Amino acid sequence: MTKLISKKAKCLILFPVLLISISVLGQQEVQLKYMLSEEASSVTWENAMVNAAGGNNVNGVDVFYRTVSCNSRNQVILKFVNNNAEDVLIEWADGVYTQDKEWIHNERTDKARELKLKANKQINGSCESSSEESLRIDIDLYVSDPKKTFRFAPSYIDVTK
């Protein structure tokens, strides 16, 4: 009988220790995820020019870009944020608006890009992911002078629900 009470006492003592250990590990994982997302959010995204007023919103979708060097190639990386309560289809053709007020764009329909974006979600390109290739644009196709500054300004963009 004393052995049975002793085993129950050990279980009662070990169980809270186990719960505390699991809780601490879970908190560390949450803190790590928070730190990783905080680092990712420290990347500066510029507003794209996607409407007549020079804004970055079309039908509830915000469009951002940033310039990066991917495999020693200068590229524009795009980010779309769907603020709608429903899924959308985004279609666009690339273009840039330079500091010299020159709009260099692509109107060829065979070069149009598209993606579907779930409600209240966002997607952004990166150098690492080949699945997001449509979110990467080779700058050299539009701006040959590396000293020229520009903003991403597609020749057209259409957001449909």
List the helices and strands and how they pair.
Layout: H1 2-41, E1 46-47, E2 57-58, E3 61-70, E4 73-82, E5 88-93, E6 95-98, E7 103-105, E8 113-117, E9 122-124, E10 136-138, E11 150-152, E12 156-160
Antiparallel strand pairs: 1-3, 2-3, 3-4, 4-9, 4-10, 5-8, 5-12, 6-7, 6-11
| Contiguous runs where pLDDT drops below 50 for at least 5 residues | 14-40
Bin the helical content. Answer: 10-25%
For this structure, the CATH topology of the largest domain is Immunoglobulin-like
N-to-C span: 70 Å
H-E string: HEEEEEEEEEEEE
Largest sheet: 6 strands, antiparallel
Number of domains: 2
Number of helical runs? Answer: 1
* Quaternary structure annotation: single chain
Give the integer mean of the pLDDT values.
78
How many β-strand runs? 12
Decide which structural class fits the backbone. Answer: alpha+beta
Identify the notable features of this structure and list them briefly.
globular, 2 domains, alpha+beta, single chain, 1 helix, 161 residues, Immunoglobulin-like, six-stranded antiparallel sheet, three-stranded antiparallel sheet
Give a summary of the structure in a few sentences.
The protein is 25% helix and 35% strand.
Describe it for me?
- With 161 residues, the protein is α+β, with helices and mostly antiparallel strands.
- It has 2 domains: 1-42; 46-160, Sandwich (Immunoglobulin-like), CATH 2.60.40.
- 25% of the residues lie in helices and 35% in strands.
- The protein has 1 helix and 12 strands.
- Strands 1, 2, 3, 4, 9 and 10 form a 6-stranded antiparallel sheet that branches. A 3-stranded antiparallel sheet has the order 8-5-12, with no helix packed on it.
- The protein is globular, with a radius of gyration of 25 Å.
- The protein starts with a helix and ends with a strand.
- Mean pLDDT is 78; it is low at 14-40.
